Structure formats: structure tokens, C-alpha cells
Amino acid sequence: MTTIIQPDRRLQLVFLKAHLRCLAAGMHNSQYSGRQILDMAARATGKAYKRGQYEQAVNDIITILAA
Fold first, then answer.
1. Among the listed residues 60, 66, 61, 54, the one whose alpha carbon sits nearest the alpha carbon of residue 21
2. Is residue 59 part of a domain?
3. Does 29 map to a domain?
4. pTM score, two decimals?
5. Vertex 22, ends 49 and 66: CA angle to 5°?
6. Residue 22 falls within a domain, yes or no?
7. Structural domain boundaries enclosing 58
């Protein structure tokens, strides 16, 4: 496993987007719950997400990355 110390915000968003896409497809990680990932997305985007709103979080992250 690779640990990135002080990762750039853009890099964090790219990894978070990939993880959210996996969750939206039904692939679950044993290390993080869907709620934890949505909390990370909420901190990154400034928007609150309810359970299962993975696609909405991905779209918000894509908007931020495009800016």
C-alpha cells in the first residue's frame, strides 16, 4: 500500500472520484464505509450527501476538477 503524505487537493479528488464510482457500481471496500466516503466528498465539495448519492458526489467532484 502506498501512502501519500500531504497529497495535493486535486490528487485527493481524483482518488475520491474513482472510489465513489466503484461504490456506485456496487464494489465495496472493507476499509471505508459508504458513509465515510460520502463524508470525505462532503468535506471536499462543501455539500452534504445522503446515503447512496454516489453519482451526485462524482458529478460535483468532476465540476470542481474541470474548474
1. 54
2. yes
3. yes
4. 0.79
5. 65
6. yes
7. 9-66
Tell me if 42 sits within 8 A of 49, measured CB to CB. yes
Mention every residue, 6+ apart, whose C-beta is less than 8 A from residue 64. Answer: 13, 44, 45
Could you read off the pLDDT of 23-63 as tens digits, one per residue?
Answer: 999 998 888 888 999 999 999 999 999 999 999 999 999 99
Asked if residues 14 and 66 have their Cβ atoms less than 8 Å apart, the reply is no
CA 18 vs. chain centroid, Å, equals: 7
20 neighbors 57 (Cβ within 8 angstroms): yes
The three-state (H, E, C) secondary structure of the chain, written as one string: CCCCCCCCHHHHHHHHHHHHHHHHCCCCCCCCCHHHHHHHHHHHHCCCCCCCCHHHHHHHHHHHHHC
What's the total number of domains in the chain? Answer: 1
